[in-house]
Amino acid sequence: MECQNPNAEPTRKQTWAVFCMTKTDIRDAGLTRGQVSTMIDELKSKGSTVVPIGGETIAMKGQKAKAKSKPAGSTSPSRWALNLFHQALAAGNAAMEELIASKTVAPMVVEQHTNVLDDDSPVEQQWVVAGGPCGFAWVNVKCKDAASRKFINQLKKAGKAGDSPGCDWTKDSYAGGYTWYCHEGGQSMAYKVAYAGAVSKVLGDAGVSAWAQSRMD
Predict the structure, then answer these.
(1) pTM score, two decimals?
(2) 63 Cβ neighbours under 8 A, 6+ residues apart
């Protein structure tokens, strides 16, 4: 049968069929629907036990296959999410530093009155907070498309996403997906918003469904 939409992503049935025959997960291998269709035909054909995927090979269940060495300088596909996350963090830090240097954030003035219940009473002490009001900012990624699922799955494999306290991205039971919280910028909501916004943009430009949110403390 002729493969429909050969340049599209592999279907779940295709990736599951390959997994059942080879015990290899090819969902993040970057293959097209047509390539996987050809692979399945070769796996099903009599005497075909090894099928190449990029720089390595996979074998039918119960068979052994030798992995071919990857070309020098090639980047492991599992590094894509980590590299993208590091790029996003660098962009976030640059955006925050640029905002701080611009000195355009309206400072917050905190006053302590002699009578804390009367704002018209004399000011006893005053503090100026250069970063403006305190608050929080974060980035949420919904795993509703291939790029977003690939991003989170690779971060999980690297120990950067999950339910453990040390993970950068944690499962969001309220909003869904996974959330990264900005810990830079001190208590300034403006600085954190600039940082998170830049992180969200880098991820979004790479096809990941990400958006930044914030809340005043």
Answers:
(1) 0.62
(2) 49, 50
* Structure confidence at residue 193 (pLDDT): 98
Question: How large is the greatest C-alpha to C-alpha distance in the chain, in angstroms?
Answer: 91
Sequence-distant (6+) residues with CB within 8 A of 183 are none
Q: Are 156 and 143 in contact (CB under 8 A)?
A: no
CB 101 within 8 A of CB 131: no
207: number of Cβ within 10 Å: 14
Contact assessment for residue 109 and residue 127, using Cβ atoms and an 8 Å cutoff = yes
3-state DSSP assignment of residue 104:
coil
Nearest of 4, 15, 194, 184 to residue 99 by alpha carbon: 194
| Structure tokens, 149 | 């699922």
CA distance linking residue 1 with residue 79, whole number of Å: 36
In the chain, how many H helices and how many E strands? 5, 9
E strand segments, 80-134: 108-113, 123-129
Q: pLDDT tens digits, residue range 139-167?
A: 999 998 999 999 999 999 999 999 887 89
Rounded to the nearest angstrom, the gap between the alpha carbon of residue 48 and the centroid of all alpha carbons in its chain is 37
What DSSP character marks residue 58? E
Cα–Cα distance for residue pair 193/96, rounded to 1 Å: 8
Burial of 1 (0-12, 13-18, 19+ CB in 10 A): exposed
Q: Vertex 118, ends 112 and 124: CA angle to 5°?
A: 25
